[in-house]
Amino acid sequence: MTAIATFATRKSTFAGGVHPSEQKHLAAESAVEVLPAPEQVLIPLLQHIGAPCTLAVKPRTEVAPGDVVGQADGFVSAPVHASLAGATARTAMVTLPNGRHVPAVPIKAADSQPLEGDALWEDIFGGDWPTEGLDVYRPQQIADAARAAGLVGLGGAAFPTHVKLTPNEKKPIGTLLVNGCECEPYLTADYRLMIEAPGPVITGALLARRATGASKVIVCVEDNKPQAIESIRTAAAGAPVQVRVMKTKYPQGGEKQLIAAALGREVPDGGLPLDVGVVVINVGTAAALARAVVRQKPLTHRIVTVTGSGVRRPKNLLVPVGTSYRTLIDHCGGLNDETAMIIAGGPMMGFSLGSLDMPVTKGTSGITVLSAEDVWRPDETACLRCGRCVDVCPMRLLPTKLALAARAGNVELARRHHVSLCMECGCCAYVCPAGLPLVQLIRLGKVMVK
Ligand code: SF4
Ligand code: SF4
C-alpha cells in the first residue's frame, strides 16, 4: 500500500474522488419544516448494522413517543422506539431500500400527539446546550445513554454509536472527528442542522470527546457550506472544538477519506478508525447524543431532505422514524410528470426504490427524485481500458477488474483484488465512459466472496 504521505495531500483532501454536480441549491435554502404527525408509522426492528431487535410490545398496546418497541440484545445492536403516540398492531414484514426484509411494528397514531410543530422542534433541538460542566457525565454513562437512546450513525452508515463511544483501553483515541461534510450531491439535511441547531452538535461533540477520551475535537465541513461553517464556529466559540474547512470533493465524508484528509493518517485495509486513534461521528449523531445524555430522550425523529427535479417542492423535513416515503413525497407536493427514478439517499450511494411504501429509518438522510434528463447514461459498451475508474477510486482498487471478476463469477479474482474493501461510493461508475454498471457488479462480487 502507498505510504501515508502520498495518501493525504497538502490541500487537506484525499486521493481519488470526483466532483459531481452538487444540486444542493434545490433544498439548501429550505428551513427544516416539522412534518405533521402521519396517520401511521412502521418501525423496523433492524435499522442498524448488527443484530436485529427483539419485539418488546404486543399488538394493540398503547405507546407514547420514546417507548421501547424493539429491544437490543447483542452489543452491536440498538433498540428502537415508538416515534408517535398511538396503538401498536401486529408485526408486519417490510422491505428496506437495501433489499432486506425485516419485521416492523406498525403504530397507528392517536388523535393528538403530545408535541407537534414548533413545540416538537424545541423539544428536540431548542433551548440551551451546555459546553461546560460536561465532566459530570462519566464516559461509560455517555456510552450507555447512547445505547439506551438507540443512537446509530445518522450519516447513513447506521453503526451503533455506543460501540464507537465505549472506552477501549487497548486502543486509545486521540482525535474525534465530527463529520459535517455531507458530500453526497442533493442532500442538505446536515447542512440545515448545522445552520439551525449548531448548539446540540457542539454539546454532542464534547460529550463524545469525554466518552472516548479524545484530546482533540475537529468538526469538518466542506468549503461549499460557508453559512454552516460560520454557524458551527459561533456555537463552538470558547469551547475546545476546532472547525476545519475541507476541500469540496466526493466522497470527502467517507470515514477513511475524512481521516486521510484531516489528519494525514491511513486506516489500514480491513481496519477501523480506532486503529489510528480516531473516532468519527456525524453531526446529526452528535446532536442526537446531546439530547440522549442531557435530556435522556431517545432517537425518535430525524431530518430528511426530499429533493430533486422530480419532486414539486424540495424540502428538509423533521420526521418521525417509520414515516412512509410516500407521506414525505406527498407533503412536498408530489412527483413531477418527468420523474424517472426515486432514490433512498443521494444519487451516488443511494438505493433506487421500486416502491414508496417504505419507512424512513434512522439512517435515511434523504429521498432524491430524478428526472429522465438527470439519469441519462451512455449506452453500455465493452471496457475501453481508459483507466478513469482506477484514477478516481478513493480506495485505490481496480474497479474494472472487480467488475470483470463479478461478471465471470470468478470469486478468487474478486478476492485477490480486494472486492470487500469497496465502499460503494460510485465514483468509478460516475466516470466510466463505457456506461458499465460497475457498482452493481461489484456488489455482486462482494456477495460472491461472502
Ligand atoms: S471500486 Fe468501489 S470504492 Fe472504488 S470507486 Fe468504485 S465504488 Fe468507489
Ligand atoms: S472507466 Fe470504464 S471504460 Fe474506463 S477502464 Fe474503467 S471500466 Fe473500463
Structure description:
This protein is 29% helix and 18% strand. The protein has 450 residues and is an alpha/beta fold. It has 16 helices and 18 strands. The longest helix has 15 residues, at 198-212. The chain is globular. It starts with a helix and ends with a helix. It has four domains: 4-22 and 119-294, NADH-ubiquinone oxidoreductase 51kDa subunit (Rossmann fold, 3-Layer(aba) Sandwich); 35-114, no CATH class; 303-371, Ubiquitin-like (UB roll) (Roll); 388-449, no CATH class. A six-stranded mixed beta sheet has the order 1-15-14-18-16-17, with helices on both faces. Strands 2, 4, 7, 8 and 9 form a five-stranded antiparallel beta sheet that branches. Strand 16 and strand 17 (351-352) form a beta hairpin. The chain binds iron/sulfur cluster (2 copies). One iron/sulfur cluster is lined by residues 392-395, 397, 399, 422-428, 438-439, 442.
Quick recap:
This protein has about 450 residues and is of the alpha/beta class. The protein is built from 16 helices and 18 strands.
SSE blueprint and pairings:
Blueprint: H1 4-7, H2 25-28, E1 33-34, E2 40-44, E3 54-55, E4 62-63, E5 68-71, E6 80-81, E7 86-88, E8 92-95, E9 101-109, H3 117-125, H4 139-148, H5 161-165, E10 175-179, H6 189-196, H7 198-212, E11 216-222, H8 226-236, E12 242-246, H9 255-263, E13 278-282, H10 283-294, E14 301-307, E15 315-320, H11 325-331, E16 339-344, E17 351-352, E18 366-371, H12 388-392, H13 399-408, H14 411-416, H15 427-431, H16 438-449
Helix pairs in contact: 4-7, 4-10, 6-8, 7-8, 7-10, 13-16
